[in-house]
Protein backbone atom coordinates (compact mmCIF):
# COMPACT_ATOMS: atom_id res chain seq x y z
CA UNK A 1 0.00 0.00 0.00
CA UNK A 2 1.43 3.41 -0.98
CA UNK A 3 1.27 6.31 1.46
CA UNK A 4 -1.32 7.97 -0.79
CA UNK A 5 -3.73 5.08 -0.10
CA UNK A 6 -3.47 5.37 3.69
CA UNK A 7 -6.42 7.04 5.41
CA UNK A 8 -6.01 9.41 8.35
CA UNK A 9 -7.37 6.79 10.74
CA UNK A 10 -4.94 4.18 9.39
CA UNK A 11 -2.13 6.70 9.75
CA UNK A 12 -2.88 7.17 13.45
CA UNK A 13 -2.89 3.41 13.96
CA UNK A 14 0.49 3.24 12.21
CA UNK A 15 1.82 6.02 14.45
CA UNK A 16 0.57 4.30 17.62
CA UNK A 17 2.24 1.04 16.47
CA UNK A 18 -0.07 -1.44 18.20
CA UNK A 19 2.37 -4.25 17.35
CA UNK A 20 4.62 -2.86 20.11
CA UNK A 21 1.99 -3.16 22.83
CA UNK A 22 3.17 -6.63 23.94
CA UNK A 23 6.24 -4.81 25.26
CA UNK A 24 3.89 -2.74 27.45
CA UNK A 25 1.58 -5.56 28.54
CA UNK A 26 4.18 -8.26 29.21
CA UNK A 27 5.78 -6.66 32.30
CA UNK A 28 2.35 -6.10 33.83
CA UNK A 29 1.36 -9.71 33.17
CA UNK A 30 4.51 -11.05 34.85
CA UNK A 31 4.33 -8.65 37.80
CA UNK A 32 0.72 -9.67 38.32
CA UNK A 33 1.53 -13.39 38.13
CA UNK A 34 4.08 -13.00 40.90
CA UNK A 35 1.64 -10.90 42.93
CA UNK A 36 -0.91 -13.72 42.71
CA UNK A 37 1.71 -16.17 43.98
CA UNK A 38 2.62 -13.92 46.91
CA UNK A 39 -1.00 -13.23 47.88
CA UNK A 40 -0.87 -9.49 47.09
CA UNK A 41 -2.88 -9.40 43.86
CA UNK A 42 -5.02 -6.25 43.54
CA UNK A 43 -7.14 -6.02 40.40
CA UNK A 44 -7.64 -2.26 40.11
CA UNK A 45 -3.96 -1.27 40.53
CA UNK A 46 -3.02 -4.03 38.07
CA UNK A 47 -5.48 -2.71 35.48
CA UNK A 48 -4.31 0.87 36.02
CA UNK A 49 -0.69 -0.27 35.59
CA UNK A 50 -1.62 -2.00 32.32
CA UNK A 51 -3.38 1.07 30.91
CA UNK A 52 -0.58 3.36 32.09
CA UNK A 53 2.06 1.16 30.48
CA UNK A 54 0.14 1.14 27.19
CA UNK A 55 -0.17 4.93 27.21
CA UNK A 56 3.55 5.38 27.89
CA UNK A 57 4.37 2.93 25.09
CA UNK A 58 2.11 4.74 22.61
CA UNK A 59 3.42 8.13 23.72
CA UNK A 60 6.97 6.89 23.20
CA UNK A 61 6.00 5.65 19.73
CA UNK A 62 4.61 9.09 18.86
CA UNK A 63 7.81 10.68 20.20
CA UNK A 64 10.00 8.37 18.11
CA UNK A 65 7.95 9.05 14.99
CA UNK A 66 8.12 12.81 15.48
CA UNK A 67 11.72 13.25 16.66
CA UNK A 68 13.25 10.78 14.19
CA UNK A 69 11.58 12.71 11.37
CA UNK A 70 12.54 16.21 12.47
CA UNK A 71 16.11 15.11 13.21
CA UNK A 72 16.48 13.47 9.81
CA UNK A 73 16.85 9.88 11.04
CA UNK A 74 13.98 8.62 8.85
CA UNK A 75 15.01 8.77 5.21
CA UNK A 76 13.68 7.35 1.95
CA UNK A 77 16.08 4.43 2.43
CA UNK A 78 14.30 3.36 5.61
CA UNK A 79 13.57 -0.39 5.62
CA UNK A 80 11.31 -0.37 8.67
CA UNK A 81 7.62 0.18 9.02
CA UNK A 82 5.99 3.35 7.71
CA UNK A 83 6.55 6.49 9.78
CA UNK A 84 3.70 9.00 9.54
CA UNK A 85 5.70 12.18 10.18
CA UNK A 86 8.50 11.46 7.72
CA UNK A 87 5.98 10.07 5.24
CA UNK A 88 3.90 13.25 5.32
CA UNK A 89 0.79 11.41 6.50
CA UNK A 90 0.30 13.54 9.62
CA UNK A 91 1.72 17.00 10.25
CA UNK A 92 4.71 17.03 12.61
CA UNK A 93 3.07 19.41 15.10
CA UNK A 94 0.00 17.19 15.22
CA UNK A 95 2.10 14.13 16.07
CA UNK A 96 3.97 16.14 18.68
CA UNK A 97 0.67 17.27 20.22
CA UNK A 98 -0.57 13.67 20.28
CA UNK A 99 2.62 12.66 22.07
CA UNK A 100 2.10 15.23 24.83
CA UNK A 101 -1.60 14.42 25.16
CA UNK A 102 -0.86 10.71 25.49
CA UNK A 103 1.79 11.28 28.14
CA UNK A 104 -0.60 13.67 29.93
CA UNK A 105 -3.24 10.92 29.96
CA UNK A 106 -0.72 8.52 31.47
CA UNK A 107 0.11 11.06 34.18
CA UNK A 108 -3.58 11.61 34.90
CA UNK A 109 -4.11 7.87 35.25
CA UNK A 110 -0.97 7.73 37.33
CA UNK A 111 -2.51 9.95 40.02
CA UNK A 112 -4.50 6.92 41.17
CA UNK A 113 -1.36 4.80 41.24
CA UNK A 114 0.44 7.53 43.20
CA UNK A 115 -2.41 7.45 45.73
CA UNK A 116 -1.92 3.69 46.05
CA UNK A 117 1.86 3.52 45.90
CA UNK A 118 2.92 6.96 47.10
CA UNK A 119 6.11 8.82 46.29
CA UNK A 120 7.97 5.84 44.72
CA UNK A 121 5.31 5.62 42.00
CA UNK A 122 5.38 9.38 41.46
CA UNK A 123 9.13 9.21 40.85
CA UNK A 124 8.85 6.16 38.59
CA UNK A 125 6.02 7.67 36.57
CA UNK A 126 7.72 10.99 35.95
CA UNK A 127 11.00 9.29 35.04
CA UNK A 128 9.18 6.95 32.64
CA UNK A 129 7.48 9.81 30.82
CA UNK A 130 10.65 11.91 30.71
CA UNK A 131 12.66 8.97 29.40
CA UNK A 132 10.01 8.20 26.78
CA UNK A 133 10.53 11.68 25.37
CA UNK A 134 14.30 11.64 25.87
CA UNK A 135 14.64 8.36 23.96
CA UNK A 136 14.68 10.26 20.65
CA UNK A 137 14.09 13.87 21.75
CA UNK A 138 15.73 16.49 23.89
CA UNK A 139 19.33 17.72 23.92
CA UNK A 140 20.82 14.24 24.33
CA UNK A 141 18.55 11.62 22.70
CA UNK A 142 19.25 8.29 24.37
CA UNK A 143 18.61 6.23 21.25
CA UNK A 144 21.08 8.34 19.25
CA UNK A 145 23.94 7.74 21.68
CA UNK A 146 23.81 3.98 22.19
CA UNK A 147 21.71 4.17 25.36
CA UNK A 148 18.46 2.90 23.89
CA UNK A 149 19.16 -0.68 24.93
CA UNK A 150 19.75 0.36 28.53
CA UNK A 151 16.60 2.50 28.49
CA UNK A 152 14.44 -0.40 27.31
CA UNK A 153 16.04 -2.88 29.72
CA UNK A 154 15.45 -0.59 32.69
CA UNK A 155 12.07 0.97 31.95
CA UNK A 156 10.27 -1.68 29.90
CA UNK A 157 11.71 -4.47 32.04
CA UNK A 158 12.97 -3.77 35.55
CA UNK A 159 10.82 -0.74 36.34
CA UNK A 160 7.66 -2.02 34.64
CA UNK A 161 7.61 -5.45 36.31
CA UNK A 162 8.68 -4.31 39.77
CA UNK A 163 6.38 -1.27 39.55
CA UNK A 164 3.41 -3.49 38.68
CA UNK A 165 4.15 -5.77 41.62
CA UNK A 166 4.77 -2.83 43.93
CA UNK A 167 1.45 -1.03 43.35
CA UNK A 168 -0.48 -4.22 44.01
CA UNK A 169 1.52 -5.09 47.11
CA UNK A 170 1.24 -1.51 48.36
CA UNK A 171 -2.54 -1.60 47.90
CA UNK A 172 -2.67 -4.69 50.12
CA UNK A 173 0.10 -4.08 52.64
CA UNK A 174 0.51 -0.31 53.00
CA UNK A 175 -1.41 2.87 53.69
CA UNK A 176 -2.14 5.23 50.75
CA UNK A 177 0.32 7.98 49.80
CA UNK A 178 3.27 6.29 51.44
CA UNK A 179 6.59 8.12 51.28
CA UNK A 180 9.04 5.23 51.40
CA UNK A 181 8.92 1.64 50.19
CA UNK A 182 6.86 -0.37 52.71
CA UNK A 183 8.16 -3.78 53.82
CA UNK A 184 7.17 -6.66 51.55
CA UNK A 185 6.26 -4.49 48.57
CA UNK A 186 9.49 -4.96 46.59
CA UNK A 187 10.95 -8.44 47.15
CA UNK A 188 14.03 -9.77 45.39
CA UNK A 189 11.80 -12.14 43.40
CA UNK A 190 10.13 -9.21 41.65
CA UNK A 191 13.50 -7.92 40.47
CA UNK A 192 14.58 -11.37 39.27
CA UNK A 193 11.25 -11.91 37.50
CA UNK A 194 11.79 -8.63 35.65
CA UNK A 195 15.05 -9.77 34.07
CA UNK A 196 13.61 -12.01 31.30
CA UNK A 197 11.10 -9.33 30.29
CA UNK A 198 13.85 -6.72 30.26
CA UNK A 199 16.01 -9.02 28.14
CA UNK A 200 13.37 -9.92 25.56
CA UNK A 201 12.11 -6.33 25.33
CA UNK A 202 15.67 -5.24 24.62
CA UNK A 203 15.99 -7.97 22.00
CA UNK A 204 13.10 -6.36 20.11
CA UNK A 205 15.18 -3.20 19.94
CA UNK A 206 18.26 -5.16 18.88
CA UNK A 207 16.37 -6.59 15.89
CA UNK A 208 15.24 -3.07 15.02
CA UNK A 209 18.80 -1.72 15.27
CA UNK A 210 20.30 -4.49 13.15
CA UNK A 211 17.70 -3.84 10.46
CA UNK A 212 18.36 -0.08 10.52
CA UNK A 213 22.14 -0.19 11.01
CA UNK A 214 23.16 1.13 7.59
CA UNK A 215 20.61 3.96 7.55
CA UNK A 216 21.35 4.89 11.17
CA UNK A 217 25.05 5.13 10.37
CA UNK A 218 24.37 7.69 7.63
CA UNK A 219 21.99 9.81 9.72
CA UNK A 220 24.09 9.99 12.89
CA UNK A 221 22.04 7.64 15.03
CA UNK A 222 24.80 5.87 16.97
CA UNK A 223 23.06 2.75 18.21
CA UNK A 224 25.15 -0.09 19.63
CA UNK A 225 24.78 -1.88 16.29
CA UNK A 226 26.27 1.15 14.54
CA UNK A 227 29.02 1.64 17.12
CA UNK A 228 30.18 -1.97 17.38
CA UNK A 229 28.81 -3.74 14.31
CA UNK A 230 26.57 -6.66 13.43
CA UNK A 231 28.64 -9.16 15.40
CA UNK A 232 28.22 -7.28 18.65
CA UNK A 233 24.49 -6.79 18.12
CA UNK A 234 23.99 -10.48 17.37
CA UNK A 235 26.01 -11.48 20.44
CA UNK A 236 23.92 -9.09 22.53
CA UNK A 237 20.74 -10.69 21.19
CA UNK A 238 21.94 -14.18 22.13
CA UNK A 239 23.20 -13.19 25.60
CA UNK A 240 19.89 -11.52 26.42
CA UNK A 241 18.05 -14.60 25.20
CA UNK A 242 20.20 -16.83 27.43
CA UNK A 243 19.41 -14.59 30.39
CA UNK A 244 15.68 -14.87 29.69
CA UNK A 245 15.74 -18.66 29.66
CA UNK A 246 18.08 -19.01 32.64
CA UNK A 247 15.96 -17.00 35.09
CA UNK A 248 13.05 -19.46 35.40
CA UNK A 249 15.51 -21.99 36.85
CA UNK A 250 16.09 -19.61 39.76
CA UNK A 251 12.39 -19.78 40.62
CA UNK A 252 12.18 -23.55 40.14
CA UNK A 253 14.90 -23.91 42.77
CA UNK A 254 13.25 -21.48 45.20
CA UNK A 255 10.99 -22.71 48.02
CA UNK A 256 7.35 -22.00 47.35
CA UNK A 257 7.60 -22.26 43.56
CA UNK A 258 7.15 -25.28 41.32
CA UNK A 259 8.53 -26.56 38.04
CA UNK A 260 5.66 -24.65 36.44
CA UNK A 261 7.92 -21.60 36.65
CA UNK A 262 9.85 -23.20 33.78
CA UNK A 263 6.84 -23.03 31.43
CA UNK A 264 8.55 -20.33 29.28
CA UNK A 265 10.90 -23.08 28.04
CA UNK A 266 8.00 -24.10 25.77
CA UNK A 267 8.77 -21.01 23.68
CA UNK A 268 12.43 -21.96 23.19
CA UNK A 269 12.01 -23.56 19.73
CA UNK A 270 10.35 -20.37 18.51
CA UNK A 271 13.16 -18.31 20.05
CA UNK A 272 15.79 -20.46 18.32
CA UNK A 273 14.06 -19.96 14.99
CA UNK A 274 14.21 -16.19 15.49
CA UNK A 275 17.84 -16.44 16.52
CA UNK A 276 18.80 -18.27 13.33
CA UNK A 277 17.32 -15.44 11.30
CA UNK A 278 19.09 -12.83 13.40
CA UNK A 279 22.45 -14.54 12.93
CA UNK A 280 22.08 -14.69 9.16
CA UNK A 281 20.01 -11.74 7.91
CA UNK A 282 20.18 -7.95 7.78
CA UNK A 283 17.58 -7.09 5.12
CA UNK A 284 14.49 -5.19 6.17
CA UNK A 285 12.08 -7.43 4.29
CA UNK A 286 13.28 -10.32 6.48
CA UNK A 287 13.81 -8.50 9.77
CA UNK A 288 10.47 -6.68 9.75
CA UNK A 289 8.62 -9.99 10.26
CA UNK A 290 11.35 -11.03 12.70
CA UNK A 291 10.66 -7.89 14.73
CA UNK A 292 7.00 -8.87 15.01
CA UNK A 293 7.93 -12.46 15.82
CA UNK A 294 10.17 -11.27 18.66
CA UNK A 295 7.24 -9.27 20.02
CA UNK A 296 5.08 -12.40 19.90
CA UNK A 297 7.85 -14.34 21.66
CA UNK A 298 7.87 -11.76 24.44
CA UNK A 299 4.08 -11.98 24.83
CA UNK A 300 4.00 -15.78 24.87
CA UNK A 301 6.93 -15.96 27.29
CA UNK A 302 5.27 -13.44 29.62
CA UNK A 303 1.96 -15.29 29.73
CA UNK A 304 3.61 -18.65 30.41
CA UNK A 305 5.96 -17.17 32.99
CA UNK A 306 3.10 -15.41 34.81
CA UNK A 307 1.07 -18.61 34.89
CA UNK A 308 4.05 -20.60 36.13
CA UNK A 309 4.93 -18.07 38.82
CA UNK A 310 1.37 -17.94 40.11
CA UNK A 311 1.40 -21.58 41.25
CA UNK A 312 2.27 -22.25 44.87
CA UNK A 313 1.74 -25.97 44.48
CA UNK A 314 1.19 -28.39 41.63
CA UNK A 315 -2.16 -27.82 39.93
CA UNK A 316 -4.48 -30.84 40.15
Protein described:
- The model has no long low-confidence stretch (mean pLDDT 92).
- The protein has a single domain, classed as Farnesyl Diphosphate Synthase.
- Helix 2 (21-38) packs antiparallel against helix 7, helix 7 (188-211) runs antiparallel to helix 11 (284-310) and helix 10 (268-280) runs antiparallel to helix 11 (284-310).
- The longest helix has 29 residues, at 224-252.
- With 316 residues, it is mainly α.
- The chain is built from 11 helices and no strands.
Estimated radius of gyration: 19 Å
User: What is the 3D form?
Assistant: globular
Strand fraction: under 5%
Please, how many helices? 11
End-to-end distance = 51 Å
User: Structural class, from secondary structure content?
Assistant: mainly alpha
Question: What's the number of domains?
Answer: 1
Number of strands: 0
Give the low-pLDDT segments. Answer: none
Proportion of residues in helical segments: over 70%
**Mean of pLDDT:** 92
Under the CATH scheme, the architecture is Orthogonal Bundle
SSE order, one letter for each helix or strand = HHHHHHHHHHH
Brief summary of the model shown:
By secondary structure, the chain is mainly alpha-helical. It contains 11 helices and no strands.
Describe the secondary structure blueprint for this structure.
Layout: H1 8-16, H2 21-38, H3 43-70, H4 92-117, H5 119-134, H6 148-173, H7 188-211, H8 213-219, H9 224-252, H10 268-280, H11 284-310
Helix pairs in contact: 2-3, 2-6, 2-7, 2-11, 3-4, 3-5, 3-6, 4-5, 5-6, 6-7, 7-9, 7-11, 8-9, 9-10, 10-11
